[in-house]
Design goal:
About 55% of the residues lie in helices and about 10% in strands. By secondary structure, the protein is an alpha+beta fold. The protein is globular, with a radius of gyration of 18 Å.
Length: about 260
């Protein structure tokens, strides 16, 4: 969650490659997909009205999923690699937020501008939260090019400023052709632009992108932005309070489990 997203806080793709997944994770994937569509559909859309009981049915699905063990499997997706160039926060933070996003997704940009900085300031800086980015391009060649460019910027420790530049107001409307991506890298302070161009076009960038995509496909991500907070799905550009509540709950659970 066409070159321009429909008027909903997530962007979906109709076709998904089939991947084999366990029954438990499959149930979690269904839960995530349902929550994603219902949370982001326009208020008067058939999807929201026909599934208007999502607030009551989703917890039931989550409870069934938990009993089958998918929550632990989803929590295990946190990589916690100290050298992860597309992550911010301590590797041993009690809470990990995994974000599946596309640089051409308007509501991903809204999250990046309006919500993520507050999460970083309040939770990452005090050691509570780690944010791990997953490139999940769903809008075609431009999306994939931007994803590879973000990875390439990360190889020179400039992922965060590239992320900010690419998600700046009006940025996606300018497209993500090669010249534009190099300009964004320049804005982000990438020191070696020749290396950036080589990395962006290299096999490692493609492999990193495929790894992120396949992870998302495997758990049933169908829209951008989609999130996991210690394995708990959050779909769409939800308000800050929704993330704050999820982080507080996840932190309490992590502390209890550590005792």
């Amino acid at each position: 969650m066409p070159a321009s997203p429909s008027p909903s806080p997530s962007s979906s793709r109709s076709a998904r490659k089939p991947l084999l997944i366990s029954a438990g994770v499959a149930l979690a994937a269904v839960t995530l997909g349902i929550v994603s569509w219902q949370a982001t559909a326009p208020k008067d859309s058939p999807a929201r009205s026909s599934a208007g009981s999502s607030s009551s049915s989703a917890p039931e699905a989550e409870s069934e999923a938990d009993s089958a063990g998918p929550a632990a499997q989803l929590r295990a997706l946190a990589r916690r690699e100290s050298g992860d160039k597309l992550a911010v926060g301590r590797a041993d933070a009690p809470v990990v937020l995994i974000e599946y996003s596309d640089f051409k997704c308007g509501y991903c940009g809204k999250f990046a501008r309006d919500t993520e900085p507050a999460l970083v300031k309040k939770y990452v800086e005090d050691g509570t939260l780690r944010i791990e980015w997953r490139n999940f391009p769903i809008f075609g060649a431009d999306s994939e090019a931007a994803a590879k460019a973000a990875w390439a910027a990360g190889q020179q420790d400039r992922f965060a400023p590239f992320h900010s530049a690419a998600y700046a107001e009006g940025s996606k409307e300018k497209g993500f052709g090669e010249d534009r991506l190099v300009e964004l890298a320049r804005q982000a302070g990438v020191p070696d632009l020749e290396r950036f161009k080589k990395d962006m076009a290299g096999e490692q960038a493609g492999a990193a992108l495929r790894k992120d995509q396949e992870e998302g496909y495997r758990i049933g991500v169908t829209s951008t932005p989609s999130f996991l907070v210690n394995g708990q799905p959050i779909a769409g550009a939800q308000p800050l309070d929704a993330f704050a509540a999820a982080i507080a709950k996840a932190k309490t659970q992590a502390q209890a489990a550590a005792k």
